[in-house]
Amino acid sequence: MSGLKDKILNSESNLLLYSFAPPKIDTTEERRKEIARIQLARMEGLHIDGVILYDIQDESHRTNEERTFPYVPTISPELYAKDYLHSLQVPKIIYKSIANHTREMFDEWLRNNRELEYAVFVGASSKAQIEETKFTLTDAYNLRQQHHDHIILGGVTIPERHSKKGDEHNRILEKKQNGCRFFVSQCVYNIHDTKNLLSDYYYDSLDNSYELRPIILTLSPCGSMRTLQFMKWLGIEVPQWLYNDLKHSKDILKTSVHVAVNIASEIAEFAHAKQIPIGFNIESVSNRKDEIDAAIELLHETEKILGR
Q1: DSSP secondary structure string, the chain?
Q2: Each residue's pLDDT tens digit, 143-161
Q3: What is the pLDDT of residues 19-30, one digit of tens each?
Q4: Which of 8, 67, 217, 234 yields a CA-CA distance of 20 to 30 A from 14?
């Protein structure tokens, strides 16, 4: 079986990833080690191509709505991977936000993390941040290409943005031209937005003769109305009918897993018919044990859908 690097470079389909955020930065050293031990044990039996470690940002300036959960900084994902998950045998994809970074700061970060194999750069969530630092996502891509092109680079794609602006496939192509070899979506709950994006991406590639890169679609269970509200705060589009079903469900967590499995099945069938290289990334937005357990259940069900 080929590894993650070959699968990405060959634009293969059926990739399967598992993702989570590092512990809060105020977590004691003893507790950090305990959390890592639990996570390593949880991942030991998973048939995944790699893990994603998120770089959590405040994002409160992105919206005027009150944040559902208070923001507490986390341990940087690259440090957590190196210091606590070093025994993990699968590849680690490190998210890195450029928010509040100048060119000099980001260049220093790259130089200090030369051992990174995979990274996803995340743009600032507001124009005000860019105006303050004068550093853009394109600048970050250029720095990586000039001095650190060994890093296999991924990009973020947001299907909901496509429904509003209709140009997400163009953003994917632009990021592809800037060195991105794969793309990871925001959590998917609106299947129509996702299929519209995949369709436009596919037909644009035919019209303009370029190779499709893998799109890894994120799925996540939802175990409470508070988690659902937080998803909406993050910008995840939850159709009204689904919001109503989840709100009135006797078991919101079970219902959300069922919905996510159906979404994965429909998207996989749609992409397979057009030979669009896709995969899935399973995450838990919450750190509650029942939601994490549900994410593992969802991962196993998605594995079956992919025929792995």
Answers
A1: ---HHHHHHTT-S-EEEEEEPPPBTTS-HHHHHHHHHHHHHHHTT---SEEEE------GGG-SSPPSS----B--HHHHHHHHSTT--S-EEEEEE-TT--HHHHHHHHHHTTT--EEEEE--SSHHHHHHH---HHHHHHHHHHH-TTSEEEEEE-HHHHHHHS-HHHHHHHHHHTTEEEEEEEEP--HHHHHHHHHHHHHHHHHHT-PPPPEEEEE----SHHHHHHHHHTT----HHHHHHHHH-SSHHHHHHHHHHHHHHHHHHHHHHHT--EEEEEE-SS--HHHHHHHHHHHHHHHHHHT-
A2: 999 888 899 999 999 998 8
A3: 999 999 999 999
A4: 234
Q: How many domains does the chain have?
A: 1
Closest C-alpha among 287, 296, 244 to residue 72: 287
Q: Give the domain CATH number at 48.
A: 3.20.20.220
Instruction: Note the pLDDT of residue 284.
Output: 84
Structural domain boundaries, residue 159: 4-306
Please give the pLDDT value at position 222: 94
Bridge partners, residue 279, by sequence: 15, 216
Strand partners, 168: none
Q: What percent of the chain has a predicted confidence (pLDDT) above 90?
A: 79
Q: Is the pTM of this model over 0.85?
A: yes
Average pLDDT of 105-125?
Answer: 92
